[in-house]
Structure formats: C-alpha cells, structure tokens
Design goal:
- The chain contains 7 helices and 5 strands, in the order H-E-E-H-E-E-E-H-H-H-H-H.
- By secondary structure, it is of the alpha+beta class.
- The chain folds into 2 domains: 122 residues, Enolase-like, domain 1 (2-Layer Sandwich), CATH 3.30.390; 64 residues, no CATH class.
- Strands 3-4-5 form a 3-stranded antiparallel beta sheet, covered by helices on one side. Strands 1-2 form a two-stranded antiparallel sheet.
- A hairpin with a 2-residue loop joins strand 3 and strand 4.
C-alpha cells in the first residue's frame, strides 16, 4: 500500500508525527525564538504532497461584545474526508505603530498560526515564549514553586526547547532548577 492509499486519519496522524516546524524566527527585543505561520506552511507543504492532502486557510472578521477578532479556519482533506480547526485573535485597530491593515493582518496571521498548531498538534506549551512573553510590559511573575527534575515529562520538553534556541533563564521563570538539572538540560 502506498502512502497515498492510506485512509485520511492515517495520513493526518503521519503528518502530525513527521512535521517539524522549529522556531527559526528571533525576537531580539524579547530575546526569544518563535515560529511563524509561514514557517509552518513551508514545513508542511512537502508532507501534503507526500500524502496527497490539500490544505486551505480562510479568515473571517467577527465582532463579539464590541471586540473585533480574526477567526482563521484551517481545513485539511482529501477526496474522502476533511477536518477543520479554527482559532481566533483579537484586533486592536488603534495598535501603536501599525496602520489598520497591518493590525488586521497581524491578527489574521496569529489566528492562522494557532489554527495550524491545532490541526497539526504543534506544541506551543508554557515553554513557548508566546505563552510566557510579556513583550517588555509589566513585572515578572511570582517565583516558581514547581521543581524541574530529570525523569519528569517536562524535562525532555525543556531540553528540546533549549536546543531550539530557548534560554535557561526563561525556564527559571516557570520552574525551580537545581545546578545539577541545569547541567543535564544543557547536555
């Protein structure tokens, strides 16, 4: 049986397993790495071809309670089946340093990225700077209370995050880390 003869669910599972979308973008101001919507699309296109699947992305601007937001819908399918995932991102039309088109475009891109994360099971966990980044605003959160230790499920995730460009100081905002564990993380 060829890869193109797999059923839809098997194809989706294979792509979720094979897809590698590292955080190759750098925010020097916030001192963190991230992946963009374009990074995910670049990484997934060869897999779509390999498994004979089509991917579409659409946006809709909505309003709820006076708040504008972009809702992105990512649909993956073949001739037999399809699945869709949606994600939203708020729009601030008065965002400093952006004109109205840039504000809408930024929110669209953000929503698309998180819809892609959802359909392909890309982990943007608490170790992801998007989850912990304050973008230079506000004070740091309270001291962490949870210890990061070898053998815990968080340890390999933290190790991977560091190898992809994360830094130990960001980890220390979430976990208490002993000197021994810090050395093991950096191996």
């Amino acid at each position: 049986m060829s890869k193109k003869d797999l059923d839809f669910n098997d194809k989706l599972i294979a792509i979720q397993k094979e897809l590698k979308a590292p955080k190759n973008q750098r925010n020097n101001f916030g001192k963190y790495n991230y992946r963009s919507c374009e990074d995910i699309l670049e990484a997934v296109k060869p897999l779509l071809s390999k498994y004979a699947l089509a991917l579409t992305i659409s946006d809709e601007i909505k309003e709820l309670g006076g708040i504008l937001f972009a809702e992105a819908t990512v649909t993956l399918g073949d001739m037999d089946a399809k699945v869709s995932v949606q994600a939203q991102a708020g729009i601030d039309p008065n965002r400093k340093g952006m004109d109205i088109a840039q504000s809408f475009g930024s929110s669209s891109s953000y929503a698309r990225k998180y819809a892609l994360n959802g359909i392909f099971l890309i982990d943007d966990s608490a170790l992801d700077p998007d989850a912990t980044n304050t973008h230079g605003k506000g004070a740091k959160s309270a001291e962490p209370t949870k210890w990061l230790n070898e053998g815990t499920p968080e340890f390999p995730k933290a190790q991977k995050w560091l190898k992809e460009g994360g830094d130990i100081d960001t980890l220390r905002t979430k976990y208490k880390i002993s000197k021994k564990v810090a050395e093991a993380l950096l191996k």
